[in-house]
Amino acid sequence: MSFGGLLVMLAMALALSENRRRISLRVVLTGLGLQLVLAVLVFLTGIGSALFAATDRAFAFFMAASNEGAGFLFGKLTTDYTLGAVVAFQVLPIVIFFSALAGIFYHFGVTQWVVRAMARAMQKVMDVSGAESLASALFVFFGIESTTAIAHYIRRMTRSELFTLMTAFMATIAGTVMGAYVSFGAAPGHLLTASLMSAPAAIVIAKMLVPETEQPLTRGRVRFDPPRESVNVIDAAANGAGQGLRLAVTIGAMLIAFVGLVHLVNLIVGGVSGLWMAEPLSLQRLLGWAFSPAAVVMGVPWEDAYEVGQLLGTKTILNEFLAYRQMQPLAADGVIGPRSVTIATYALCGFANFGSVAILV
């Protein structure tokens, strides 16, 4: 069923393409091939099992360190769950810690090496330009701020390259917020796999919708040698923590605003519909009805389609933070099955929502 969903998405991209004759068959086939190879390695081999186990251990290790730092500042508020999970004290500090960790990796050149390897692999195999393959690889680890690494190329990018850049941004998640999703119950191994698979997937869809009709400036080459901004590892950690703090404050403000707005909409819609309906409408119910067909196409069993549809709608209309948080009790209480949880984890993994469109504009 999930394979059928892939065919449906490719058919939709083909139908909406602005120039079907210029679609590169090599880009489509190699992009799908990269996803297939990664999926086989992850799900059907011992390598995948080892990767999942290593990822789970790594995240548990880093989360324990993050909780220790947060506990020093907030005390028992980070470990006391008698009042439920408190996002401000138990989730947002993880964003700050992971940002500091990312700063350290960047200082020692680890991130640059991985990004270059991914970008070169996609550029060589898929025959896309260096700038768009580099942007797609960067977005796996960083957010929209990483475009500064290719800022001098953006003004001279072709229309197709710009569209690919925007698609890749919305299809992936930044590594700095991955820990927050894990704290909501998402499996670390699935999140990492989803983000890696989304890079070539985004290129495939983007190149089908807006095929390349010009000559990219960076075709055939990938150059990524950013200057080291930190003086030493302490400076790198401090700069990363500062960036993480700004990100955590933004996330907190966004959650306050959106949760409040959802409640306001539910009060209005519920009040009006309650005049003639025994069970008043809510935003969640409307989203469940609207997005349940998409959930079924992805391979979600019909009995779980309504709940997963709500999650997909929340992720698209609002953001993925709220969607992952809503998924946590559904998975814990067995409301949706393990297969549905796995599919939802992959489907929610990305910045594709209306807020991201505003950021890109």
Describe the protein:
This protein is mostly helical and 361 residues long. It folds into two domains: 9-250, no CATH class; 282-360, no CATH class. The chain has helices at residues 2-16, 25-44, 46-74, 87-90, 92-107, 110-126, 130-141, 151-154, 159-171, 175-183, 188-209, 233-273, 283-298, 302-317, 320-332, 338-348, 354-360. Helix 3 (46-74) crosses helix 11, helix 11 (188-209) packs across helix 16 and helix 14 (302-317) packs antiparallel against helix 15 (320-332). It starts with a helix and ends with a helix. The model has no long low-confidence stretch (mean pLDDT 85).
Question: How would you briefly describe this protein structure?
Answer:
The chain has 361 residues and is mainly α.
Spell out the key features of this protein.
0% strand; globular; single chain; 2 domains; 361 residues; 73% helix
Give the helices and strands, then pairings.
Layout: H1 2-16, H2 25-44, H3 46-74, H4 87-90, H5 92-107, H6 110-126, H7 130-141, H8 151-154, H9 159-171, H10 175-183, H11 188-209, H12 233-273, H13 283-298, H14 302-317, H15 320-332, H16 338-348, H17 354-360
Helix pairs in contact: 1-11, 1-13, 2-3, 2-11, 3-5, 3-11, 5-10, 5-12, 6-7, 7-9, 7-11, 9-11, 11-16, 13-14, 14-15, 14-16, 15-16
Question: What Rg is obtained from the alpha carbons, in whole angstroms?
Answer: 21 Å
The percent of residues in helical segments reads over 70%
Write down the secondary-structure element order. Answer: HHHHHHHHHHHHHHHHH
Number of E-state strands: 0
Largest sheet: none
> Quick check: average pLDDT?
85
Overall form: globular
Number of helices: 17
State the low-pLDDT regions, or none. none
End-to-end separation in angstroms reads 35 Å
Please indicate the percent range of residues in DSSP E strands (runs of 2 or more): under 5%
Structural class: mainly alpha
Count of folded domains: 2
